[in-house]
Amino acid sequence: MSSKNFTKALQKKTALKHIENLFQHQNEVITKDISLAQRYLDTIRKLAMSFRIRLPREIKRSYCKHCYTIKTPENTRTRLKGSKLTIFCKNCNKFTRIPYK
Using CA atoms in the order 27, 36, 38, 13, what is the torsion angle rounded to 10 degrees? Predict the structure, then answer.
């Protein structure tokens, strides 16, 4: 492996660890200060985009894909319809449908 590819792989690995660390901090802060948690989420998204990292499933499902706000029980409505979990965002009035078994 060339040194350039090795350093890129190392940078991605370090960025992913940083993203996971920020997500843990976001979960700790979310009940106290929602604006700080939202800034953590913005930082997570910017890091993932700049290093071209695919976010883990639990991080992707923690925010609305349309307006990028954190999903909380106050700003979402969750329903089970057939074989899908339907989440309605009250901020942007959009639906997210997730299949389940």
Answer: -60
